[in-house]
Design brief:
Structural class: alpha/beta
CATH superfamily of the largest domain: Periplasmic binding protein-like II
Keywords: Membrane, Receptor, Transmembrane, Transmembrane helix
Largest sheet: 10 strands, mixed
CATH architecture of the largest domain: 3-Layer(aba) Sandwich
Distance between the termini: 112 Å
Number of helices: 15
CATH topology of the largest domain: D-Maltodextrin-Binding Protein, domain 2
Radius of gyration: 34 Å
CATH class of the largest domain: Alpha Beta
Number of strands: 10
Helix content: 40-55%
Strand content: 15-25%
Protein name: TRAP transporter solute receptor, TAXI family
InterPro entries: TRAP_TAXI
Amino acid sequence: MKLIQRSMDKKVGILIAIVVVIIAAVLAVWLASTPPPTTTPKPATPSPTTTTTQPTTTQAPTVSRITIATGGIGGVYYYYGSIIASILNNYTDIRANAIQTAASIDNLLLIRDRGVEYCATTLPDSAYLAYTGQHPKFANKTAPIAILWAMYPNYLHIVTKASTGIKTIYDLKGKRVSTGAPGSGTEVNALSVLQLVGIDPAKDFAKWEKLGVQESAKALADGTIDAFFWSGGLPTGSIVELSALLKQRGDQIVLISIPDDVIKAYAEKYPGVAARGVIPASVYGAPQDAVTLAYWNFFVCHKDLPADVAYKITKAVFEHLDILQKSVAAAKDTNLKNALIALGGKIPYHQGALKYFCEAGLQQACQALSK
């Protein structure tokens, strides 16, 4: 019996030892996986006679991608903006995308409401009205824009065809007329001119349409409208195609002139925005030249776009003007000679763009930077 008791005591002892070893091992693993307790040091108590002020810095937003708001397909803005996006994608670290819009006013709203990553093509009077808050859509919140460069002159086209019998702007009364897409610079131009000649589209047109250039050209060709307004560069592709189509049908494109007194009144109402221009008959195969208003388009961005990004955009475009000019006929006027044509006007130029133009040898840019 004693032998049996000793044997059992020995087994119990061994079993207890094993259990102790297991518990010790588990504790070791648990302690190894548990981070040591942290202690928070007490903050230093400043002397009652001194105060500690941390400097505050405002970090500029980082922008590596931009969206270029342009215009409708068939207009120069869309192709101009698309080529700029291509240049930036190929020659900078900025990712760029060009989007179709209703043009100027729509573009300026995008810059205002979407922020620093937006740039745009725009007519100068639209930009002026949006920047100063004189346009209804910007009365309570203006467009925070800065010009990078002047692009090329737009010409206000009043397009009809010989078969309508329309010969002057006053003949538009009682006719079916398109004044451009809603929110476009064309619409702003058209309504301003019509107001000066005493025509109210809502009352004086037999039918008032608001179509983009491509839709307007088709409607005129199909006979659903009698005339349309369009503000664009020379030549505008949709109007070239319209002229060819009318000729095939035994008709002819006609461009209506704006009287000199109306041009003068317009220039007085919108100082520095537009001047007298001429659309040569040869551009579209019209029977005669058309006297009209010419406007210098702007390439604008949000005023808070970082200066280094504005500099990269301007540098890339002006160092690859050959690509832009080969792709867009109107871009022949995008050059160093014309880039600062709006300097000193109401809307400021972007500091990043001025830096590039100063480096390129334009002294007026250097002077503007030093102010």
